[in-house]
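User: Okay, second chain of the day. Same drill as before: sequence in, structure tokens out.
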Amino acid sequence: MLTPKQHELLCFIHNSLEESGVSPSFEEMKDALGLKSKSGVHRLISALEERGFLRRLPNRARALEVTKLPEGGNLKPAKSNIVNIAPDPVSSAPMKEIPVAANDVIEIPLHGKIAAGVPIEALEGQSALSVPAALLGSGEHYALEVSGDSMIEAGILDGDYALIQRTETARNGEIVVALVHDEEATLKYLFKDNGQVRLDPANPAYEPQIFGAGEVRIQGKMAGLLRRYN
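Assistant: Same drill. Structure tokens below.
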């Protein structure tokens, strides 16, 4: 079952494709659905992708394929099912593996600072961070400002913005937001073994931290990174 907004967006994309052969832009989708920001459009597209109604095409930048309609029944693969979001208006000729600039920007919550050193509290704030949509995959995301230098060998520096996919599970070796004792959060490599959780830094100046499995909760995993140069 789709929510009314998911149904409305899928039909809007499909109808635009049938009429013009191209998908509406994020801004057009936002206006058509009466949403306040393009982040709502991104969440709806991610939900439709997870439910199998849309598919992102890995070999074409910012392209979607409509795989089925709300009434049910898979659509046959066809050129008309493949849509470019906000395509280049100068030329309609097929593109050959040339990346398209990701001009669509969405806003995700910015929840204060996260330690890349000694764990500190991850503050819940009301701020938002504008992020290119192409940096984010499916699912819900938020951002945290990095504080500390314990992940520098992973390319994560003090002052960077970590883009986090919200999840409660992660595999060994992934960089995660780990909440320790339900009080402090830190950004580290995750390793689980024999009922213990090890949080590894990416800086030889810091020691790994070892906890019992019940002492650590995963609040998300690293999906991307933003860095500002002043």
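The longest strand covers residues 105-115.

User: Thanks, on to the next one.
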